[in-house]
Amino acid sequence: MSINGQAYIVGAYEHPLRKAPDKSLAQLHAEVALGALADAGLSKDDVDGYFCGGDVPGTGPFSMVDYLNLRVRHADSTNIGGASYILHVNHAAQAIAAGKCDVALVTLAGRPRSEGVPKGGLKRTDSPVQPDYAWETPFGMTILNVYAMCAMRHMHEFGTTAEQLAWVKVAASHHAQHNPNAMLRDLVTVDDVLNSTLVADPLHKLDCCIVSDGGGAVVVTRPEIARQLKRPLVKIRGAGEAVKHTAGGAIDLTYSAGRFSGAAAFAEANLTPADVKYASVYDSFTITVIVQLEDLGFCAKGEGGRFVADGNLIAGVGRLPVNTDGGGLCNNHPFNRGGITKIIEAVRQLRGEAHPAVQVANCDIALAHGTGGMLGTRHGGATLIIERE
Amino acid sequence: MSVLREALDHQPETKAFWSELAEGRFKLCYCRACERAHWYPRAICPHCASPETEWRAASGQGTIYSYSIARTAAEPFAIAYVTLAEGPTMMTNIVGSDFAEIAIGKPVEIAFGHEAEDGITLPVFRLA
Ligand SMILES: [Zn+2]
Fold first, then answer.
1. Which helix (H) or strand (E) holds A171?
2. How far is Cα A142 from Cα B54, in angstroms, rounded to an integer?
3. Among B4, B8, B71, the residue to mutate for chain A (most A Cβ within 10 A)
4. pTM
5. pLDDT digits (tens, 9 = 90+) for A289-344
6. Domains in chain A with CATH codes
7. Ordered structural domains, chain B, with CATH
8. Is the Cβ pair A120, B72 closer than 8 Å?
9. Mean pLDDT of A115-135
């Protein structure tokens, strides 16, 4: 069974706040849920499927379904880190195609800024029960330094440079200057990135995403319901997911799970990277974007550094506009998870509702891709390809 | 009890690794069915799924596959992936070396006597 054409994204909403000290976590989830439903022209009583990641308060869907007072006949709390929500759209489309639900709600929210963020790179939130824990954590592994090791190896094998990494941030800042809600709106140059603090060789401070409060939500439904609503039709064409890990010690830091999730998504959509007019690509760090663009097939393996240089990701300038909301590097990265904003900006582009300064002309095919977890140890990849009908 | 001690208590299948390392012996987990070493050590071979695994003495030699210097830590340190002479690549620290001397491809050797805060000996490496 394919999900191609079986479901549509009809609602999308990004919380305008980037710091929310006066709101609870459940309240933020509820606000983005109701925002996305209002965008679709639906109400909470239409929802019969709920999808959430590891950012919800409590166990799986229980507390949020209770808080929102939903009546669901399908729920899925698969957690692959920040890429979960892209995977959820895939699972929602599968559930809809199988008749398990009609209106699926996906939410992400968090308030890490208000709750305090440890300095020097976030520690993992892993448990000592994990079989891998004792073989990584005692060496001081953080999210930051394990992504840094991926960047170091990429530079070694392919000649990728710090300047090329910096171009990813420069492009994000060019887009964020037009987003009134973006956390960082100042234009950044390659030199600004290289002159920022070296935090974990070869990554500088400005190679790293922001930490923001807030969240977002999307609503997925079946074609018959989508056609009754008044919003532009955004059809799901294909999706893929994969998990990459340490393979018994056969470590290769140069590629991500996106190699497999991307191939599956393009095959299901019957499309190629050349068809994609806009791409939301997970930008936890600048290196993440480069590795994923290669794995998704936008350039050959090892060419990512050259591909992103000289403004090639900037709307109106380059060949492939990426993260036109400013991405996780400048706009928003709620709960340290960027998946939902990746879908939301792709939907805006297909609807023609991106900021006019970054709107891609004739944007008919868009891609959203995420890497959740640790690029250099275990992570999930999720790819979604959507089309303006 | 430290979190590492707690983690080890959860993993009886790798208890021998830590007690051997504390005595100055670096052991790798091998599979008697497929004759391959793996990392991290486990009771069931990740290559062929055989439960016939055993500890064998390892050379303690390897090369740096990748690394980073964690510069924002209170005491900056070098984290690395080292590819062992026996095949598997493992996460570790490079100790006792100038950060500027550390590079991908350089040979390293196991450095005994480095303990986590609760007295657990860690498998770390130094430039050879
Ligand atoms: Zn085996």
1. helix A162-176
2. 31
3. B71
4. 0.97
5. 999 999 999 999 999 999 999 999 999 999 999 999 999 999 999 988 999 999 99
6. 8-112+209-388 (3.40.47.10)
7. 3-127 (2.40.50.840)
8. yes
9. 73
